[in-house]
Batch of 2 targets.
Target 1
Amino acid sequence: MKQILTKEERDDYMKGLDAEQKDFIQNHVRRGKKTTFANFMAKDKGIVLPEDTDSEEIEHLLEEWVLEDYIDNGYVNAETPCECGRPLRYQYVVKHNRTKEQRTFGITHFEEHTGLPAEIVKDIKSGFQKIDYEMDDLLVKLHQGWSLNESLPNIPEDYTFPKDIQKHLDVNVPLLDRQIHRLRHVGEEIPRREVTEEIKEETIPASQSFYEAQEPDPINLFSEEEMPAPKNEKDLQMYVLAPKYRDAVIGYLEDGVTSARVICELLIKNNSAPKGRYTYSERPKIYVSVCFYLDLLVSRGQATHIGSLNLDDRYYKLT
Ligand SMILES: [Zn+2]
């Protein structure tokens, strides 16, 4: 059972940290809450994105409320009230993307002051709580003198950590359990079968089922003239993004969207791209052809990859 801290313990553990660690943890909580909020607002619209998608990316998809800020004032302060005048320590600031209206409230009056449906508020609140528990996890580990070597003894010395993990190590903040979990096989020789099988299933569907699933709108996605030399025509067709979506993709990159997943959702929302999703991962089916088109831009020198390529999402920017 994870240790959950009281407010007093949190404050107490926080006091023992250096400025950089304190800053890192507060930022982690702030970013985590913004991302949670944006993810649930998107989910309400049927949009499913990887959990770690940045809130700024998701906000390109949201026309309504986004979490602008989360502030810990350090103590219950009359200068930082809820919409109703009640003094607050922890302040949530939301902004309406279309009307630019801004609201400030404490967690207990979240529903009352935003008018969001109770169900979404409930989900967001439990998401926020998860972030607070992550903070507790970090504080407890710091308090107990956590060390990377003890937690993950098999990591080779020259190992290159994923960026998010390296950021923790740079400021001497312990890793979250889910990060430790990701590294658990590093230094062991284990074939990564799950991943390769998922790639097979989702990016090279040799079976007919993909086309059957696309039935209502099979032609639009693929362009006849750009089809590569057909060894297996049907397999190759799905890699090609229809010309009518290409300008839109470039437009989104120009707007500063970098996530291929978010670009897919924008194409579905604004450009009537096919809505089909894979059942298990809930990735849009156009994801494959969008990535192929983005990779084509990279090979032409018009765009570059940001960060590592993985199956869940890929990031690009124009050059
Ligand atoms: Zn209030």
Note: The pocket of zinc ion is lined by residues 82-84, 86, 105, 109, 113 (CB under 6 Å).
Target 2
Amino acid sequence: MFYSDSGSTSVEVALKMALGYFRNIGAPRSRIVVMEHSYHGDTIGTMSVGARGVFNAAYEPLLFEVDTIPFPAPGREQKTLDRFEAVSRNRRAAALIVEPLVLGAGGMLMYPASVLTELKRIAETSGTLLIADEVMTGWGRTGTLFACEQASISPDILCTSKGLTGGTIPLAATLSTDAIFQAHYSLDRKKTFFHSSSYTANPIACAAALANVEIWNDEPVAERIAALGALQAAGLRRFHDNPCFSDCRVTGTIAALDLRTSSPGYLAEIGPKLRAFFLERGLLIRPLGNVLYLLPPYCVTGAELDRLYDAIEEAGERFGSKP
Ligand SMILES: Cc1ncc(COP(=O)(O)O)c(C=O)c1O
């Protein structure tokens, strides 16, 4: 377990652990495989393994090359698996990094747990490490403590932050298997895991994380999360036949739907208009372009969710274009 202070740093640490592992066992590998539309942070390393676009275009010359597998969109899951099998066959890939079950900033894109199970199987076959970036999906977001549980897999490296302190104070942790730890644990100082920061395992942040863990241990958190998931699924139901929206989707406590518009995408004009529309009604919903999503705090009430869904319905009538 290696502590740091943000989701981005937890991913940087994960990437360094993967490369350090292969170097220290004397079989260097340096290629990272990534999933299309991913987001892993805003540092140079994490931008390199995330989707390229307007947000990182200025820094492109500094970003390292990666192999990209397609997003497993419904009906195209096998393409993702085939591509991963192909890029990992030459055994140059150190790691595959994924956001398990839900790609957040990429548009709340959801894929089935079975794909994750298969990705792990292929990774094992080729000796490629699996890095699970659970920065957003961890701590109950997808319905289980970690999303990987739903795929019945244990990643080689797991990144966690955000929910680790209940979203209150900056803290992150990168967890690795014993094999990766042992590859760095040596009297040979060249094998040291060289990463440190002034605020690593900051005691106040750790106290907040411990308080969060106590809540998980002592309170019926799993039941609350299941109840919130059910509310989200029920809330979305009214949009299934609404022509102003498409792709209604829910995974655990996360609900998302796309507003039909003639110009979709993250930078679509509609994004700021929608945000202003919701703010006027006292609601803080931050759309990703035309993608509307609700990722509420676990203390949200059914009545509050209803207000949000009512406003989304109204927004559909105001801004949506019917097919
Ligand atoms: C999946 C994922 N990874 C990494 C990050 C980066 O975390 P931070 O903003 O704490 O650096 C985020 C942030 O939203 C995220 O959603």
Note: The chain has two domains: 2-216, 221-319.
